[in-house]
Design brief:
By secondary structure, this protein is of the alpha+beta class. It contains 11 helices and 7 strands. It folds into 2 domains: 127 residues, Orthogonal Bundle (Arc Repressor Mutant, subunit A); 91 residues, no CATH class.
Length: 252
């Protein structure tokens, strides 16, 4: 029974934008068994990629709202699903393995999981090549664009985030993974920053420092410049930004 539920969980995660392909070695099953109990796997597969309240999720789980809340909070605390709040209401939804579950296990990643991931990432990278709709992609806007190549400076990066309400910074999971594999990085560990809803979720996982204004980010970006890192926001209105070093995610 447990093998069957993990097979279905793999298929469920493979349907998400980040993919989760099968391998001949079965290393992906080892990863899932390490991160999910059979019950947690069943609960996760009953979620959707859209934020939903307990009132909509609990009937699908066959649970009362109080019981469903306890189970979902546990999964969210572990980093296996996403939880955000709008006012006093908690919303839950399923997330991709990468970017998502893997990064949110920042506090619990150990050598065993690091070894599994080192073996598995090449399979994920190959799967990403064949995905038609990628997580980060160019969206056609049916308009002419001028090809103007420009490298943004730190002042422009600051402009992007000056109005963010919540900012959180966390260690780089790539660095932590390398540390478990006896490949320590000499650069600063805290290199990933989240804004607003992404920051809210990250703070909930109790894995980082946070501020409610841009001052910390300005200090952080100055340290990035000193360390020789490139700042890489994920969009024009970024939810996250990373200090990108040459050694980051070489397996990708």
């Amino acid at each position: 029974m447990s093998v069957e539920v993990y097979t279905r969980l793999r298929e469920f995660l493979d349907s998400m934008p980040g993919c989760f392909p099968a391998t001949e070695s079965g290393v992906e099953m080892k990863i899932l068994k390490k991160l999910f109990t059979p019950e947690q796997a069943e609960i996760t597969m009953k979620l959707t990629p859209m934020p939903e309240p307990l009132s909509e999720i609990a009937p699908r789980l066959g649970m009362s709202e109080s019981e469903a809340s306890e189970k979902l909070e546990e999964l969210a605390k572990e980093g296996s699903i996403m939880r955000v709040r709008t006012g006093e209401q908690a919303l839950y939804f399923a997330i991709s393995f990468v970017v998502g579950i893997y990064e949110f296990h920042l506090n619990t990643i150990d050598r065993e999981l690091s070894e599994y991931m080192k073996e598995y990432f090449p399979y994920m990278a190959k799967a990403w090549e064949s995905v038609g709709t990628k997580q980060l992609r160019v969206v056609p806007i049916e308009a002419s664009l001028h090809d103007e190549k420009k490298v943004g400076n730190y002042a422009q990066i600051r402009e992007l985030i000056k109005d963010k309400e919540l900012i959180a910074v966390s260690p780089c999971i790539c660095t932590k993974e390398k540390g478990h594999m006896d490949e320590p990085c000499s650069r600063p560990e805290e290199r990933c920053i989240q804004f607003d809803m992404a920051a809210q979720a990250a703070v909930f996982f109790e894995r980082l420092n946070y501020e409610d204004n841009a001052q910390y980010y300005l200090i952080w970006s100055a340290l990035a410049k000193r360390a020789g890192a490139e700042l890489e926001p994920n969009a024009e209105w970024p939810a996250r930004c990373e200090q990108r070093l040459r050694c980051c995610r070489q397996h990708l």
